[in-house]
Structures are given as structure tokens and as C-alpha cells.
Amino acid sequence: MKKILLILVLIVLNVFNTSAQDREYLISIEGxxxxxxxxxxxxxxxxxxxxxxxxxxxxxxxxxxxxxEHSNQNFEAQYVFNESNRVTRVEFRSVPxxxxxxxxxxxxxxxIISIDIPSIDCYNRRFLQTQIFPSHxxxxxxxxxxxKPELQFEDSDIxxxxxxxxxxxxxxxxxxxxxFASPNSAYKWEFLDNINLDRITNQTWVFINRRLNEAxxxxxxCEEMNVCPxxxxxxxxxxxxxxxxxxxxxRTVEISVWRPIENKEGQSQVNLLxxxxxxxxxxxQQAVLNQNVQIILDQYQL
Length: 302
Hints:
It contains six helices and 19 strands. The chain is α+β, with helices and mostly antiparallel strands. It is flat.
């Protein structure tokens, strides 16, 4: 009798298109913008991020013509585009704040910086403040472009939203959009490991411990300096409650972890067996049978 191999769940963003494929890419822009020479005035900081495409069209992915107040803040924006109409240029528009004869004002001269994108083949570049926001005191921007493969099971009758069971002698086949120029970057397969868990600090424990320390400091101030925001009895009871709660809360917890399927990297079509997930761990190969296993291409865990 054949053993059930895996119950695979694909983590997909798009439904696979079996017709002529226009490959998709994801552009991601993130960074930080500081301020101009003065911290005052009206609209200021990053006003817009605009993409220009091969056909001459453009699209705002951050801001537009509105007057924003976006200084001393992080920013991020994303957009999916097709290879047939790729991004050719990114434009940043920012307004610094300066001082004049009548005090603080917006600089009437905007900084409009255009960044040419010569290739979308795994473009990744960081720009410094002087390159991207020359009139601001701090800032930077990272532009990252990655291929965005679509996924389907090899058995096209099985929906990508379905749970797929396979057998140990045949495995489970998955197909991704093919033809990307850098396959090692486009096809980085991962699975969610529910067998070999990682142990991490329990953030609930951290939160309770922080609250306990605050309560103890408050109680100490009440006892030693007679500065009591509440009756001493209430403060003592609060400390005891937090001590009991902390004692009953585990300091660490175990969690599932996304791990690479190393022998499948760079492949647009894969056939998965337990030995692909756990090549040197035979006990894990057995333990994973009949369990749900999630599969993903790792750059899209956004």
C-alpha cells in the first residue's frame, strides 16, 4: 500500500495563467527621509514616488499631487508590473523646509530626482541622502525588483487553493512561471517546518516582566521617597499579581520556521519528496507524513 507523502498547501499570490505568459515583477521601494534645515512650515518631506513605464505611461505609488507632511519618517511602496511594459524610471519628489527673511517656510524649489532602471533582472540598489534627498539632512532609499512567479500543481485539475495529497513513490509536482533571467533568484523554494521547531523568547513573558519591573520601581519610590500614585497596599498587590503571572508564563516558546528546500533552488518545476525537505533526517521524513506542509517562494513573504 502506498503511504501518504505530504499534504501540500501552496502559498500563492496569483492564479497560474496557462496562456501565453507575460511574466510579472514586484518593485519594492523603502527608506527614510529626514527634514530640511528647519522643523517648521507647511507641507514638507517626501511628496511622491512615481513609476514610469516602457510605453510612456506613469503611476504614483506613494503620494501624488497632494501636499503631504512626511519628514523624519520611514516610507515604503510596492507595485507589480508586467515584463512587456517594464518600469524604466523611478521619480522621487520632495520638499525641504528652510528659513527665510520671514521665518520658516517651504522651499519653493522642489527636489525632483529621477532614477533610471536599466534592467529589471533582480535590480537591487540603495541610494544615499545626497543622491535621493539632497536638500534634507538625512535619508536613503532602497529599490528592489524581483521576479514574481505564479504557482500551480503539476496536476492542473487540482486548484492552487486546494490541499494536495501525494504518495512516497511519486511525490508532488509544482510548476512556477518559467523563463526568468535569474532562476536562482526567482525560484527559492521554502517549506514551513512543523517538525524541527525553533525556540525563541516568549514576547508575552517579556511584556509581563517589563510591567513587573515598572510596578516594583513604583513601589520602591512609594516606600523610600513617599511618592505614591496609589495606596501602598494597591501597589503591593499589583506586584504580587505580576510575579504570579510571570511565574506561570513560559519564558520561551517553540515556533514553526520557514526553511529552504536547497536542492530545488533555481528550478521552475519541482517534484517534492520527504527527503527534499529533510535530506539527512530520516525521523523527520517519517514524522512529516500525513501532515500539512506549506510551500512558498521565499521572496514573496511580504
